Protein backbone atom coordinates (compact mmCIF):
# COMPACT_ATOMS: atom_id res chain seq x y z
CA UNK A 1 0.00 0.00 0.00
CA UNK A 2 2.77 2.43 0.96
CA UNK A 3 4.64 1.69 -2.27
CA UNK A 4 1.50 2.38 -4.31
CA UNK A 5 0.97 5.68 -2.52
CA UNK A 6 4.63 6.61 -3.09
CA UNK A 7 4.30 5.91 -6.81
CA UNK A 8 1.18 8.08 -6.94
CA UNK A 9 2.89 10.95 -5.11
CA UNK A 10 5.95 10.73 -7.38
CA UNK A 11 3.75 10.68 -10.48
CA UNK A 12 1.81 13.72 -9.29
CA UNK A 13 5.08 15.54 -8.57
CA UNK A 14 6.33 14.81 -12.09
CA UNK A 15 3.06 15.95 -13.60
CA UNK A 16 2.95 19.12 -11.52
CA UNK A 17 5.46 20.70 -13.85
CA UNK A 18 3.11 19.99 -16.74
CA UNK A 19 -0.07 21.33 -15.12
CA UNK A 20 -0.46 24.03 -17.75
CA UNK A 21 0.10 21.57 -20.59
CA UNK A 22 -2.83 19.16 -20.93
CA UNK A 23 -0.91 16.90 -23.31
CA UNK A 24 2.34 16.57 -21.36
CA UNK A 25 3.85 13.09 -21.22
CA UNK A 26 6.06 11.82 -18.43
CA UNK A 27 9.16 12.49 -20.58
CA UNK A 28 8.15 16.15 -21.05
CA UNK A 29 7.09 15.81 -24.67
CA UNK A 30 3.61 16.73 -25.82
CA UNK A 31 1.13 14.07 -26.90
CA UNK A 32 -1.43 15.39 -29.35
CA UNK A 33 -3.08 12.24 -30.66
CA UNK A 34 -5.42 9.80 -28.99
CA UNK A 35 -8.95 9.86 -27.70
CA UNK A 36 -9.72 12.64 -25.25
CA UNK A 37 -11.14 11.32 -21.96
CA UNK A 38 -13.16 13.46 -19.57
CA UNK A 39 -13.36 11.77 -16.15
CA UNK A 40 -15.88 13.12 -13.65
CA UNK A 41 -16.56 11.95 -10.09
CA UNK A 42 -19.44 13.13 -7.93
CA UNK A 43 -19.86 13.44 -4.19
CA UNK A 44 -23.55 14.02 -3.57
CA UNK A 45 -25.01 16.04 -0.70
CA UNK A 46 -26.10 13.98 2.32
CA UNK A 47 -29.72 14.89 1.57
CA UNK A 48 -29.63 13.53 -1.99
CA UNK A 49 -31.94 10.53 -2.28
CA UNK A 50 -31.22 7.36 -4.26
CA UNK A 51 -34.10 8.33 -6.57
CA UNK A 52 -32.47 11.70 -7.29
CA UNK A 53 -29.16 9.98 -8.02
CA UNK A 54 -30.95 7.57 -10.38
CA UNK A 55 -32.40 10.56 -12.27
CA UNK A 56 -28.96 12.17 -12.49
CA UNK A 57 -27.42 8.94 -13.82
CA UNK A 58 -30.19 8.58 -16.39
CA UNK A 59 -29.86 12.20 -17.51
CA UNK A 60 -26.09 11.92 -17.82
CA UNK A 61 -26.45 8.69 -19.83
CA UNK A 62 -28.79 10.50 -22.26
CA UNK A 63 -26.20 13.13 -23.21
CA UNK A 64 -24.49 10.97 -25.88
CA UNK A 65 -27.81 10.90 -27.76
CA UNK A 66 -27.98 14.70 -27.64
CA UNK A 67 -24.37 15.78 -28.18
CA UNK A 68 -22.74 14.37 -31.29
CA UNK A 69 -19.14 14.96 -30.20
CA UNK A 70 -19.44 12.30 -27.48
CA UNK A 71 -17.77 9.10 -28.76
CA UNK A 72 -18.19 7.02 -25.62
CA UNK A 73 -19.81 7.11 -22.21
CA UNK A 74 -19.59 4.83 -19.22
CA UNK A 75 -20.18 5.13 -15.52
CA UNK A 76 -20.19 3.19 -12.31
CA UNK A 77 -20.23 3.46 -8.55
CA UNK A 78 -17.20 3.19 -6.33
CA UNK A 79 -16.37 -0.39 -5.36
CA UNK A 80 -12.75 0.14 -4.31
CA UNK A 81 -11.72 -1.71 -1.16
CA UNK A 82 -9.02 0.93 -0.44
CA UNK A 83 -11.41 3.42 1.20
CA UNK A 84 -9.70 6.39 -0.47
CA UNK A 85 -12.69 7.84 -2.34
CA UNK A 86 -13.18 10.71 0.10
CA UNK A 87 -16.97 10.48 -0.22
CA UNK A 88 -17.03 10.38 -4.04
CA UNK A 89 -19.43 7.63 -5.01
CA UNK A 90 -19.97 7.88 -8.78
CA UNK A 91 -17.51 8.04 -11.67
CA UNK A 92 -18.27 8.86 -15.31
CA UNK A 93 -15.97 8.71 -18.32
CA UNK A 94 -16.96 10.69 -21.39
CA UNK A 95 -14.83 10.17 -24.51
CA UNK A 96 -14.26 12.63 -27.35
CA UNK A 97 -12.11 12.59 -30.46
CA UNK A 98 -10.22 15.67 -29.32
CA UNK A 99 -10.35 18.71 -27.00
CA UNK A 100 -12.64 20.51 -29.46
CA UNK A 101 -15.26 17.81 -28.82
CA UNK A 102 -15.08 18.52 -25.10
CA UNK A 103 -15.42 22.25 -25.74
CA UNK A 104 -18.60 21.64 -27.76
CA UNK A 105 -19.93 19.37 -24.98
CA UNK A 106 -19.23 21.85 -22.18
CA UNK A 107 -21.18 24.64 -23.87
CA UNK A 108 -23.95 22.49 -25.37
CA UNK A 109 -27.48 23.35 -24.11
CA UNK A 110 -28.14 19.70 -23.16
CA UNK A 111 -25.03 19.62 -20.96
CA UNK A 112 -25.87 22.98 -19.40
CA UNK A 113 -29.38 21.72 -18.62
CA UNK A 114 -27.92 18.58 -17.05
CA UNK A 115 -25.54 20.66 -14.89
CA UNK A 116 -28.40 22.84 -13.66
CA UNK A 117 -30.30 19.70 -12.60
CA UNK A 118 -27.18 18.24 -10.95
CA UNK A 119 -25.90 21.24 -9.00
CA UNK A 120 -28.48 21.24 -6.17
CA UNK A 121 -27.56 17.62 -5.36
CA UNK A 122 -23.81 18.00 -5.75
CA UNK A 123 -21.55 18.53 -2.76
CA UNK A 124 -18.35 18.28 -4.78
CA UNK A 125 -17.06 17.22 -8.20
CA UNK A 126 -13.65 16.01 -9.30
CA UNK A 127 -12.75 16.33 -12.98
CA UNK A 128 -9.64 15.25 -14.84
CA UNK A 129 -9.08 15.03 -18.58
CA UNK A 130 -6.38 13.09 -20.40
CA UNK A 131 -5.38 11.98 -23.86
CA UNK A 132 -5.57 8.19 -24.03
CA UNK A 133 -2.44 6.26 -24.87
Provide a descriptive summary of the structure in words.
This protein is α+β, with helices and mostly antiparallel strands and 133 residues long. Helix content is 38%, strand content 26%. The chain has helices at 2-16, 50-66, 99-107, 109-118; strands spanning 36-44, 70-77, 90-96, 122-131. Strands 2-3-1-4 form a four-stranded antiparallel beta sheet. Helix 2 (50-66) runs antiparallel to helix 4. The protein is globular, with a radius of gyration of 16 Å. Mean pLDDT is 85; it is low at 1-21.
Concise account of the structure shown:
The chain has 133 residues and is of the alpha+beta class. It has 4 helices and 4 strands. It has a 4-stranded antiparallel beta sheet.
**Strand count:** 4
Sketch the major β-sheet.
4 strands, antiparallel
Strand proportion, as a percent range, falls in: 25-35%
Distance between the termini: 26 Å
Shape: globular
- Portion of residues within helices: 25-40%
Oligomer: single chain
What structural class do helix, strand and pairing data support?
Answer: alpha+beta
Q: Spell the H/E element sequence.
A: HEHEEHHE
Radius of gyration: 16 Å
Mean pLDDT across all amino acids: 85
Q: Number of DSSP helices?
A: 4
Sequence of strands across the biggest β-sheet: 2-3-1-4
Low-confidence stretches: 1-21
Amino acid sequence: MFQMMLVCVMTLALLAGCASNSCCKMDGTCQTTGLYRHVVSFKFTPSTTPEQIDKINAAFAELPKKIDTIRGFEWGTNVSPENLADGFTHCYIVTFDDPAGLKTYLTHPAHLQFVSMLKPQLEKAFVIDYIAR
